[in-house]
Amino acid sequence: MAQSLQKLHRSRNHRMIAGVMGGIAEYLGWSPNLTRLLFIGISTLVAGVPGILIYVILWLIMPNASQASYR
């Protein structure tokens, strides 16, 4: 059974860059790759707010997951 996060944290298990999308996917119970593809798709469609800026803000705000963060 896959572990899920109790609170929104950056993932320890599904990292590509900083674990932001992996953490969101674990919290919601979604596939990390699907979450990344959705983020990229939405970021390219909404040109008013760059996705990279949102990602960096989430990277700075979201705490890193510890072993106790998982259920």
Strand-pairing-aware structural class: mainly alpha
* Tally of helical segments: 3
> What summary fits the major beta sheet?
none
Q: Please, what is the average pLDDT?
A: 85
Protein architecture, described:
The chain is an all-alpha fold. It has a domain at 20-66. Helices cover 48% and strands 0% of the residues. The protein has 3 helices and no strands. The chain has helices at 20-28, 32-45, 51-61. Helix 1 (20-28) crosses helix 2.
Features:
single chain, 71 residues, mainly alpha, 3 helices, 0% strand
Produce the secondary structure layout.
Layout: H1 20-28, H2 32-45, H3 51-61
Helix pairs in contact: 1-2
Please sum up the structure shown.
The chain has helices at residues 20-28, 32-45, 51-61.
